[in-house]
Amino acid sequence: MMRALSIASTGMAAQQLSVAVVANNLANVSTVGFKKGRWDFQDLMYQTLKSPGTTTPTGQVPVGIQVGTGVNAVAVYRGFSQGEFQQTDAPLDLAIEGDGFFQVTLADGSTAYTRTGSFKMDRDGRIVTAEGYTVLPDITVPTDTLALTITSRGEVNAVQPGSTAPTLLGTLELARFTNPAGLNSLGKNLYQTTAASGDPTVGSPGLDGFGSVLQGALEGSNVNIAEEMVNMIIAQRAYELNSKAIQTSDEMLAIANNIKR
């Protein structure tokens, strides 16, 4: 009977993780560029009371007896499906339509990656994130710029006084990964490479499989509220069932303990 208590406790712990992931998804439903999390569970090792194929005096055991010991969470991965676009018309709001990440330089000089394109200009005219991290490659916008346009290929052009033709200031580059789900989440909508994600491949937007850049728009979260609510209900019911299994096991132990000769 103690085995049932232990098994059910692993089920409750697993469903607690499910609810935590769903709660984080719902909390970030309005976060620009957010990618929803999903969980993977696997069954734990089995206790073999009788091995399949064991030979007995009456023949060979066809199936055996193996009792599982519960469930365990093995991964919480991010789904990088495209979020819906939100039109803003701000010149430095950029969305990636397709595969790829913007590159930014962190305070320690390392490179991080993001799908959030709500960029700003610092006092020197450099294109930066809301946290002040410089977007790569480093592009500086002149202070006398009258209009700023960014093409789908990532070309940043500025119209300056006395000139009708725009001046090319630089070209944004995107990075992509063989396994983006293996990236390390830093918070602030930033990711860093790991051994699981592999090294980034850097290229120009709109070429060689990279997504194109859309100016004046942002990529919204890819969280589906209805789907998350259904997942929460399923996790809640599974949690209740596991707690019921513990309660039932406890009652059976109490019955066995109260047996009198």
UniProtKB/TrEMBL annotation:
Domain (Flagellar basal-body/hook protein C-terminal) ranges:
215-259
Alphabetically list the UniProt keywords: Cell projection, Cilium, Flagellum
Ranges where the Flagellar hook protein FlgE/F/G-like D1 domain occurs: 95-158
Alphabetical list of InterPro entries matching this protein: Flag_bb_rod_N (IPR001444), Flagellar_basal_body_rod_CS (IPR019776), Flagellar_FlgE/F/G (IPR020013), Flg_bb/hook_C_dom (IPR010930), FlgE/F/G-like (IPR037925), FlgG_G_neg (IPR012834), LlgE_F_G-like_D1 (IPR053967)
Record PROSITE patterns: FLAGELLA_BB_ROD
Gene Ontology biological process terms in this record: bacterial-type flagellum-dependent swarming motility
Q: Name one GO cellular component term.
A: bacterial-type flagellum basal body, distal rod
Stretches assigned to the Flagellar basal body rod protein N-terminal domain: 6-35
Question: How would you summarize the oligomeric state and partners of this protein?
Answer: The basal body constitutes a major portion of the flagellar organelle and consists of four rings (L,P,S, and M) mounted on a central rod. The rod consists of about 26 subunits of FlgG in the distal portion, and FlgB, FlgC and FlgF are thought to build up the proximal portion of the rod with about 6 subunits each.
Task: Read off the PANTHER family from this record.
Answer: FLAGELLAR BASAL-BODY ROD PROTEIN FLGG, FLAGELLAR PROTEIN
Concerning its family, UniProt says: Belongs to the flagella basal body rod proteins family.
| Official protein name in the record | Flagellar basal-body rod protein FlgG
